[in-house]
Amino acid sequence: MEDYKVKDLGLAEEGRIQLDWAEMHMPVLVRLRESRRGEEPLKGVKVSAVLHVTKETGVLMRTLKAWGAEVYLAASNPLSTQDSVAAALVEEGVHVYAWRGMSTEEYFQAIRRVAEARPDLVIDDGGDLHVLLNRELKDIAKGVIGGAEETTTGVIRLKALEREGELLYPVIAVNNAMTKFMFDNRYGTGQSTVDGILRATNILLAGKVAVVAGYGWVGRGIALRLRGMGARVIVTEVDPIRALEAVMDGFDVMPMIEAARVGDIFVTATGNRDVIRKEHMEAMKDGAILANSGHFNVEININDLESLAESKRVIRGSVTEYRLKDGRRLYLLAEGRLVNLVAAEGHPSEVMDMSFSNQALALLYLLENRGKLEPRVYEVPRSQDEQVARLKLESMGIRIDELTDEQRRYLSQA
Ligand code: NAD
Ligand code: ADE
């Protein structure tokens, strides 16, 4: 079998520079790595990962290698791979199967390839690897010590596997660590989504009407950062509590069909399907821009867009113009895939530092608790979350207070 498949090994030097740049901004992960380097806690352990192949993922892969693991890596989206990073990782001994622009078939073949490596531990972003192992490659899944899941959509899919009695190994929901979702989903996606929209379009955000669908952790971050750039932001929701929160955070809230008539830019962040569909597209203004930051490219119904259009053309790198039969033009960014990873570089290293420190610690936890965990979805231990937060604060030179003995006693009284 092939040892790797990437676009061009000649890009490795460029990738190494990017990895070093990311590493400089990921002090927590580097510190954890160095603290266990000599011990090689993953010696003899095979790890298969399906993650966006970015410079930050590269720093995680370097960490697993430094801890002695044999590492297999496939992309968690056909368009999010940074080819130079993929090449550099191959040169550093990682089995990478990823290149930007792979077809859907190649994408699933690559995931199958890392699953068939018979891993002891798995990391996934979105659940495609977990679903393949637990539904199809059950013999291999039975040998997996445990897994970790990076994103909200992946955790939802894993909980469905657990409910159906199909989950064959324990999984840590890394997404649900506070030091993950409160920073990565909110500030990471908030900044990188705006970055993706701007790199793709170079439009002025000030004064535009931006519609954000979903006011979860991702939606909150996007709404906050769009407002920060001067956009007038409308939020759409289906959950009354989150809708109320958006109202009290100062956003306009209305159904998508009403927002569709006034929006200049639409960003979906719900983890749900068909959030923008035919009836909404029919109501939109000429020139409206459509982007998605949810995990899968199902939030904007692209079939509906295709059926309404009489022609389409790519007008800039990540911008496709759909000319509708009535003459209006709608602009779809990044083919409706995660705009922050396709049109930009994903979250900045500083937030991935916490997400991937949680991933690395989750793998050690699974190994240390081998044989003691049920095939269930587990939350990240609170002590791990606090460890990551403390290390991050320390790396930023920020100190906090400690409880006095009297305060501790006071807080534990009835
Ligand atoms: P979340 O569960 O916190 O929020 C989702 C919100 O969407 C909820 O409030 C829900 O009520 C709302 N929603 C559901 N259907 C809707 C609809 N039809 N219209 C309007 N709102 C609707 O989830 P999250 O952590 O914010 O993640 C959202 C998505 O983003 C997931 O797919 C997740 O995997 C993905 N994600 C992407 C990135 C990235 O880098 N682009 C990073 C983190 C998470
Ligand atoms: N998801 C969002 N941003 C990311 C990044 N920079 N690297 C890996 N996965 C990501």
Structure report:
The chain has 414 residues and is α/β, with parallel strands linked by helices. It has two domains: 9-176 and 347-395, Adenosylhomocysteinase-like (Rossmann fold, 3-Layer(aba) Sandwich), CATH 3.40.50; 190-337, NAD(P)-binding Rossmann-like Domain (Rossmann fold, 3-Layer(aba) Sandwich), CATH 3.40.50.720. The chain has 18 helices and 15 strands. The protein has helices spanning 12-24, 27-36, 55-66, 83-91, 104-115, 128-136, 138-142, 152-163, 178-201, 217-228, 240-248, 256-262, 278-283, 302-308, 339-342, 349-368, 382-395, 405-411, and strands spanning 46-51, 70-75, 95-97, 121-124, 146-149, 171-173, 209-213, 232-236, 252-253, 265-268, 289-292, 309-316, 319-324, 329-333, 377-379. The strands form two sheets. The chain has an eight-stranded mixed sheet with strand order 9-8-7-10-11-14-13-12, sandwiched between helices. Helix 1 crosses helix 3 (55-66), helix 6 packs parallel to helix 8 and helix 9 (178-201) runs antiparallel to helix 16 (349-368). The longest helix has 24 residues, at 178-201. 51% of the residues are buried. The mean pLDDT is 98. Bound molecules: nicotinamide-adenine-dinucleotide (NAD) and adenine. Nicotinamide-adenine-dinucleotide (NAD) is lined by residues 151-153, 181, 185, 189, 213-219, 236-239, 242, 269-272, 275, 293-295, 338, 340-341. Adenine is lined by residues 51-52, 54, 56-57, 341, 346-347, 352.
